[in-house]
Every structure is written in structure tokens, then in C-alpha cells.
Amino acid sequence: MSLGITWYTLEEAEGKFGLKRADILKWADDGLVRTEKVDNKVIRVNIDDIELKVQELTGI
């Protein structure tokens, strides 16, 4: 889990983990990743949630 910044923009999350935006948004739609929205548009995602999902997928 992160001890620092926990909310990243979609672009930052994509770059940090090499993920596709579509995958992150799908996880958000599925309720696996918390988001911050403005006008119903995702502006930030919770990096702790993404880290957990990546660990689950990779077994690391």
C-alpha cells in the first residue's frame, strides 16, 4: 500500500503500471477501483486499489 499519494490521474496510473486506460476504467465500473469524478468523468483513481488488482493478476 502507498504511504504517500494515493490518488493518481488516469495518465499517471497508466504510466506507473503500464496499464491501458480501458482496463482501469473497466475495473472502476466493476467497483474494484475507487475513483474521483467531476461531471461524471473519472479524473483520479485510487492507486492502492490498482496495486491490489495488479498483484491479484500477476501473483506478485
Strand order of the largest sheet: 1-3-2
Summarize the amount of helix as a percent range.
40-55%
Number of strands: 3
Structural class: alpha+beta
The percentage of residues in β strands lies in: 15-25%
Round the mean pLDDT to the nearest integer and report it. 92
**What gross morphology would you assign?**
globular
Polypeptide structure, described:
The chain is built from 3 helices and 3 strands; from the N terminus they run βααββα. The protein has 60 residues and is α+β, with helices and mostly antiparallel strands. The chain starts with 6 loop residues before the first strand and ends with a helix.
How would you summarize this macromolecular structure in one to three sentences?
The protein is of the alpha+beta class and 60 residues long. The protein has three helices and three strands.
Features:
3 helices, 60 residues, globular, 3 strands
How is the topology of this model organized?
Layout: E1 7-8, H1 10-17, H2 21-29, E2 35-38, E3 41-46, H3 47-58
Antiparallel strand pairs: 1-3, 2-3
